[in-house]
Amino acid sequence: MFWQKEIETMKRPDLEALQLERLKQVVKRCYENVPFYHNRLEKAGVTPDKIKTLSDIQYIPYTTKDDIRDTYPYGLFAAPMKQIVRIHASSGTTGKPTVVGYTRADLDMWATVVARLCTAVGATDEDIAQISFGYGLFTGALGLHYGLEKIGAAIVPASSGNTEKQIMLLKDFGVTTLISTPSYALYMAEVAREMGYSKEDFSLKLGLFGSEGCTVEMRQKIEDEWGLFATDNYGMSELIGPGVSGDCEYRTGMHVAEDHFLPEIIDSASGQVLEAGETGELVVTTLTKEGFPILRYRTKDITRLNYEPCRCGRTHVRMDKIKGRADDMLKIRGVNIFPSQVESVLMQIQQIGPQYQLVVRRHGFMDQLEVKVELLEANLEKYSELETIQNNVRSRLKTVLGIDTHVTLVEPKSLERTAGKAKRVVDLRNETK
Ligand code: DLL
Prior knowledge:
433 residues; alpha/beta; Rossmann fold; GMP Synthetase, Chain A, domain 3; 2 domains; 12-stranded mixed sheet; 30% helix; binds 5'-O-[hydroxy(phenylacetyl)phosphoryl]adenosine
């Protein structure tokens, strides 16, 4: 199903013509309204009239998170505060947050792109949708909220936390669509079971997940636990929040809302733009935003763009599941490792639960990766059985990662659960010498 079929299935040449028109406008807007961009573009010798083709985007310098921080809080806003009707900020844990502002038109565009991804996977005005993302400065909850409202779903704005109450609402309200991080969906399933429920006690049929990575294997676990169809959705507050891209029914990549966001892939280290189909860092230019437009933003997220036609009929490019963040990539003894690779392996092993944590330490000059996983049953008494599981995990990880890891089996339900994004990596390399 489509929310805006004409736009979502637009012929590529028409789409690219629209993108070019909008690119010119956004460059002009930034140049004229934001001193930061004015100076940057001048320095690079790019005036708005220099943009004649889409590939002329390459002359525009990248924008980074540091640029947003350096202009904290409102330095990159391109509309007067009078026109700003909403402010969000990133969930960053260190330093000042990155602050973004929306005009009324921005909010409308946001709701529209979210409405598209909800509709693409079958959500309708018949649905009862529980939003278990935290309401607040984080864009996840309000982003999904207004998109779902646009399509006419009945929204249960549960926010995150108080998991037993969440389960009660899911059950008593006959909720059909769950919106949360994938890790919280799994945790909720665990609590539901502890409360004595099975999936048949609920009416869930769809899960709109996102805000953190979710491998296909983990998605399968969530689907098995809840008996729903789970989809992946990507976005970030600097660009708008959720709605930048989302799965269609075929789940073979997330369609980027390309009439509003122009994606590129670059080599993280050199900054070179890569060929279509290569994997690298995603860079995005917002094409229509008024309050907080951003030119060539380096997302640090690693993915690949797929321009092959999709069976669903959408022509907008698909991006692969996020492989990891450039700064989440662990370099251990010279080998690049993404937590998502570890996750794929762990999810396939029967005796362990879906929660995990990676701890990196430095012993002398050697980095060591400890993989903490939970046993499913506490009463595995035989030491040899534990050893078999441990060896199995270790050897499968070695096959996939190419390095030896230290596998620690911990008590069931002992790793930390969060209602938001799971913290999978603890890097202690600067503390352990
Ligand atoms: O997480 C926006 C969002 C909310 C997207 C709800 C989807 C659903 P931030 O808090 O600014 O915004 O975090 C953005 O989260 O750069 C990625 O590293 C990560 N991320 C977001 N979606 C996905 C996803 C929201 N589907 C950062 N898969 C991004 C993997 C994701 N990582």
